[in-house]
Write a structure and sequence with these properties.
Blueprint: H1 2-5, H2 8-41, H3 45-73, H4 75-92, H5 99-113, H6 116-127, H7 130-162, H8 164-185, H9 197-203, H10 217-221, H11 224-255, H12 263-289, H13 294-309, H14 321-349, H15 352-384, H16 388-408
Helix pairs in contact: 2-4, 2-6, 2-7, 2-8, 2-11, 3-4, 3-5, 3-15, 4-5, 4-6, 4-8, 6-7, 6-15, 7-8, 7-12, 7-14, 11-14, 11-15, 11-16, 12-13, 12-14, 13-14, 13-16
Length: 418
């Protein structure tokens, strides 16, 4: 059946996968080098938190604007603009040394990086029928884990051999390589002459939605579903940012793992999390295939993932580095399984021409949570010198996220344009 239909849509997922990989590599270079840069430039914990806050603030601004921009100019041009900005800002880290200058570079990186998920989710909605979207989302979202795996593997080698500046330059240059393949490959399904008529029909099998009508901001925020999704992202996105930016520092400060040995623990954590992204997409698709309501299937999967995060609370109580890695790995596995479904819920209940805006708005809520949490983590660590409080917050965040979805996102209600 797959051979008769065609598989061109999966090439698009491959492009989205590598876009996400590069996006996360650009973000994580700073996290890997943080202990070295902090020692070299004399940054305090609060200083580092401020630099992370700059990225998060820009990411929030970018999401609230990029989602709307993508709905207007399309994903092809939107990706081009965002990847160029992200790559240039990432490479500019190499010429800075002060807290303020790094914050400026992170701000530019945050604006560019913010388009990735709204664009990827919108592209998935354009290229896949509803029954395949969770799996496609899980696959491209797994790129974040590949980026998180390759970065601690490659960055220390580059930094130790050629200097930390070349780590930023190399990561930024990858974006321009990806752009070449995006430009020659991507068109919307209706405009792409490389797919078969059968595959185009398969992609467009769901009920046609009017593309000319726009869902205004006032209408978007008037729905309780919007608030439920935004609250979910506000609670959980900061936890993933914490994993991304503070894990190398946590392993360094608690277990004395330096730049030469940081790779293996981080690789284990993010290899495990790749399985979560794929498993979360598969589980909800499996439940739907067995007749369960799509939204109920997504929320049940999110509840399962929320339970898997709870044990991370005990990370601070172990002196065994590999037990800590195991607990953190289970949490990152669960986050990625959750992410595959929270993104798909948006395309399940909103019209295609509003998906980018809603994803951007919910991402904005998550980024605002990230700004607040980054500042709080920096202050907590500077005052207490301990991660106990941080891991306690992380252990409960996903259960609260599930509760917000349970209360505010009904299973049988699709948003209608009025």
């Amino acid at each position: 059946m797959s051979a008769k239909i065609g598989n061109y849509r999966w090439r698009i997922v491959v492009l989205l996968f590598f876009a996400t990989t590069i996006n996360y590599a650009d973000r994580q270079v700073l996290g890997i080098l943080a202990p070295q840069l902090q020692a070299q430039f004399g940054w305090s914990e609060a200083d580092y938190g401020f630099i992370i806050m700059a990225f998060q603030a820009a990411y929030a601004i970018g999401l609230i604007s990029m989602g709307t921009l993508l709905d207007k100019i399309g994903t092809r041009l939107g990706f081009i603009v965002s990847v160029v900005l992200m790559s240039v800002a990432g490479m500019f880290h190499a010429v800075f040394s002060t807290v303020a200058a790094f914050a400026v570079a992170r701000f530019g990186l945050g604006i560019g990086a913010s388009a990735n998920f709204p664009a990827a989710v919108k592209t998935t909605a354009e290229w896949f029928p509803k029954k395949e979207r969770a799996m496609a989302t899980g696959l491209f979202n797994a790129g974040s884990n590949l980026g998180a795996i390759l970065t601690p593997l490659v960055v220390p080698v580059i930094a130790l051999k050629w200097g930390w500046q070349w780590a930023f330059i190399s990561a930024g240059a990858l974006g321009f390589v990806w752009l070449f393949f995006w430009i020659i490959t991507y068109r919307k399904p209706e405009e792409n002459h490389k797919i078969s008529i059968a595959e185009l029909s398969y992609i467009l099998q769901d009920e046609k939605e009017p593309e000319t009508q726009k869902l205004p901001w006032k209408a978007i925020v008037s729905y309780k579903q919007t608030w439920g999704i935004c609250l979910a992202r506000f609670l959980t996105d900061p936890i993933w940012w914490f994993f991304l930016y503070w894990l190398p520092k946590y392993l360094n400060s608690n277990y004395h793992i330096d730049l030469t040995r940081i790779g293996l623990p981080l690789i284990v954590i993010y290899v495990v999390s790749i399985g979560g992204s794929i498993f979360g997409g598969w589980l909800s698709s499996f439940l739907i295939g067995r007749g369960k309501n799509p939204l109920a299937a997504r929320k049940l999967t999110i509840f399962v993932m929320a339970l898997l995060v709870v044990p991370i609370f005990f990370t601070s109580f172990t002196s065994n580095v590999w037990l800590a890695v195991a607990l953190i790995s289970m949490a990152t596995f669960a986050h990625q399984g959750y992410a595959a479904n929270i993104f798909t819920i948006v395309s399940d209940i909103y019209p295609k021409n509003a998906v980018g805006s809603v994803t951007g708005l919910s991402g904005f809520a998550g980024a605002i949570g990230g700004v607040l949490f980054a500042g709080a983590v920096g202050l907590i660590l500077q005052i207490t010198g301990s991660y106990y409080v941080v891991f306690a917050i992380a252990s409960m965040a996903y259960l609260l996220c599930w509760l917000s979805l349970y209360l505010l996102v009904p299973n049988n209600q699709k948003i209608e344009i009025r």
